């Protein structure tokens, strides 16, 4: 199995970078292939913009989706995007490591999706969701937060961390991935000293062991449920008897 491990953290000595390396070591130890894609390390340009495209379809007005599709068909995508897309198509699984900043992912990760999930190549109107280009592949988000597990719970002061990651999970599902339940690690804080630092180190070491053990049982990792095409009307509205898996896609109660 080929695994692509994405890392979106600017510090090479961060806990996220450490986890990404552990992901790589675990997969290699299991006899699989693993590639680490370090977005900050590559100085990936996260802004989608006209200057990325060398053979503009419309030089007067920049339409990102149209230029992506146009350059996909011309086989003239920006070099870094072309390489990343190739890695996605070659991979059987994708694991993305990132810190939970301002209740979401770092901008570089969102920009990677903006540029790398190429319209016309990775998705189009008849190639989405369960029919997406990445169907048959699994994707996992591994994220760290400074707040405690209690604060990041549905009734916590900072809100439901898993729910806030739903847009990222849905984006992966949109291009066809089977999205696995995210692995969340809380209480990852800097600036600690003495006993607090030692306690955090011990806790994080244990979480790394638990994470690697779960990776070894990859086939048993539960998936995030999403509605399928048959759950919606032709007008793209949830059918009355369709199941609900998220507050983002739900039935509207009538007065």
Total strands: 6
Question: How big is the Rg?
Answer: 20 Å
CATH class category name of the largest domain: Alpha Beta
Provide a count of the helices. Answer: 7
Q: What pattern of helices and strands is seen along the backbone?
A: EHEHHEHEHHEEH
Oligomeric description of these chains: single chain
What is the level-2 CATH architecture name of the largest domain? 3-Layer(aba) Sandwich
Largest β sheet strand count, sense and barrel closure: 6 strands, parallel
Through-space gap between termini: 52 Å
- Going by CATH, the homologous superfamily of the largest domain would be Flavodoxin domain
Low-confidence stretches: none
Tell me what portion of residues adopts beta-strand conformation: 5-15%
What is the third-level CATH name, the topology of the largest domain?
A: Rossmann fold
Q: How many domains would you count in the coordinates?
A: 2
Bulk shape: globular
């Amino acid at each position: 199995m080929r695994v692509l491990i994405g890392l979106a953290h600017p510090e090479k000595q961060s806990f996220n970078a450490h986890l990404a390396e552990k992901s790589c070591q675990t997969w290699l130890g299991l006899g699989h292939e693993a590639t680490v894609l370090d977005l900050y390390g590559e100085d990936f340009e996260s802004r989608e913009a006209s200057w990325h495209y060398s053979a503009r379809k419309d030089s007067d007005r920049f339409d990102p989706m149209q230029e992506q599709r146009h350059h996909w068909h011309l086989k003239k995508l920006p070099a870094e995007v072309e390489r990343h897309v190739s890695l996605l198509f070659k991979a059987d699984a994708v694991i993305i490591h990132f810190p939970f900043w301002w209740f979401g992912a770092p901008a570089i990760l969102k920009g990677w999706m903006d540029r790398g999930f190429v319209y016309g190549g990775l998705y189009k109107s008849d190639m989405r969701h369960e029919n997406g280009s990445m169907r048959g592949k699994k994707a996992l988000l591994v994220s760290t937060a400074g707040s405690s597990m209690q604060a990041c719970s549905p009734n916590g002061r900072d809100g439901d961390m898993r729910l806030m990651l739903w847009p990222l999970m849905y984006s992966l599902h949109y291009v066809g991935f089977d999205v696995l339940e995210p692995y969340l690690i809380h209480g990852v804080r800097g600036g600690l000293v003495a006993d607090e630092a030692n306690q955090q180190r011990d806790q994080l070491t244990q979480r790394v062991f638990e994470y690697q053990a779960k990776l070894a049982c990859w086939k048993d990792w539960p998936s995030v449920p999403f509605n399928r095409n048959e759950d919606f009307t032709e007008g793209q509205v949830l059918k009355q008897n369709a199941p609900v898996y998220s507050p983002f896609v739900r039935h509207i109660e009538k007065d």
